[in-house]
Design a protein that fits this description.
By secondary structure, the protein is mostly loops. It has helices at 17-22, 56-59, and strands at residues 34-35, 54-55. The mean pLDDT is 81. One of its GO terms (cellular component) is extracellular region.
């Protein structure tokens, strides 16, 4: 899976997840289940939920997370 951004669509869907739903870059396979590079929406779960910082399968909700951290390690 390649990293998709607003100006470089590399996700598996025909549309650009980074631009249309999430407005932030990430390793998208498809849209709508995670957006760690989104905006903090002050806990709201209404309107355009896809622009918020969320990880649906972790919290079971689209409510915005206050923060998220990503740790990367070398794979042998």
């Amino acid at each position: 899976m390649k990293f998709s951004t607003v100006d470089k669509d590399q996700d598996a869907l025909s549309g650009n997840c980074a631009m249309t739903n999430s407005q932030g870059g990430f390793w998208y396979n498809g849209c709508a289940y995670a957006n760690p590079t989104g905006l903090y929406l002050w806990g709201k779960d209404d309107g355009n939920i896809y622009i918020g910082v969320y990880w649906y399968y972790w919290k079971g909700s689209y409510k915005s997370l206050k923060s998220i951290s990503m740790k990367i390690r070398r794979v042998k």
